[in-house]
Amino acid sequence: MSYLYGQVVPKVAVAPMMDWTDRHCRFFHRQLTRHALLYTEMVVADAVIHGERKRLLGYDPIEHPVALQLGGSDPAKLAEAVRIATDFGYDEFNLNVGCPSDRVQSGTFGACLMKTPDLVARCVEAMKEAAPAGIPVTVKCRIGVDEQDPNAALFDLSRLVSDAGTDAIWVHARKAWLEGLSPKENRDVPPLDYEIVYRLKAEYPSLFIGINGGIQDLIQAREHLARVDGAMLGRAAYQNPGLLADADRLIYGETIEMPCMEDVVETMADYVDRHVAAGGRANQVTRHMVGLFHGVAGARQWRQILSTMAVKPGANGDVLRDALRAITDARQNAA
Q1: Which residues constitute the catalytic centre (predicted)?
Q2: Domain extents for the chain?
Q3: What angle do CA 59, 323, 20 make, to 5 degrees?
Q4: 212 is in an annotated binding site
């Protein structure tokens, strides 16, 4: 394992994001940073138990360190999902206590669990018992939901899951409004409260506390790391993935050069070729790369080529190679 909880080790993570952080996205992000912790999309425990496990849980070994986020509210099912997923070699098991989507609400898990912290603690305890020794079990939560007082909700949940043995708490520093706001609005409308997360860390100095929500770049992440143990980037890392290329230097203190973007694109083009040869579609990979050259000359042409060409029948890694030539040409014309 290349990272540890229980120690004050500065770290960044890419947040679990439904329909975004699939295995292709994670393979791509790993080309940009060797150390940042990557998360799967949330996988429901019932799906792990009854579904196509290789499709749901499989990933490329290059993705390590990689954490599996699980959704559910039944301790026994979550424990069984952990036992099943153990064979896949994940570096962490995380319980989703923060997603406000309608699908999650209908299953009474995700952010709904903020209302039943004792149940969350039982889920964590069951997951800990099922996980192999040394593999962390963590929680990702909100500061509260609906009319809850975050000063009570967050600290009550943290006390109970800490007693249950959680190895870390990642806090999205906003409330979730389960009634009245859409999942998209829940990512922007409720105000951020970073200070409450800082106070949580002060109350639990020996427990890893990570912060999430509204972090736009690695400079902001590093500022948070002066107060907490981890900083988690979500949409910023997805929409402008190039920022991850500086994570190993800025956050982890490495002295190696940043990844060469041309090399990253060539690696991903070869990956697309393999994926297509195995029966996949090019756009299943390239959709995660649209924002790679954010703010760079030729970025518009890059986006246009990926958006229009990768969806065509027979598209392969050449779509990325052609788009890269647009970047190279724009750079030469600007020189």
Answers
A1: 99 (proton donor)
A2: 11-250, 261-334
A3: 35
A4: yes
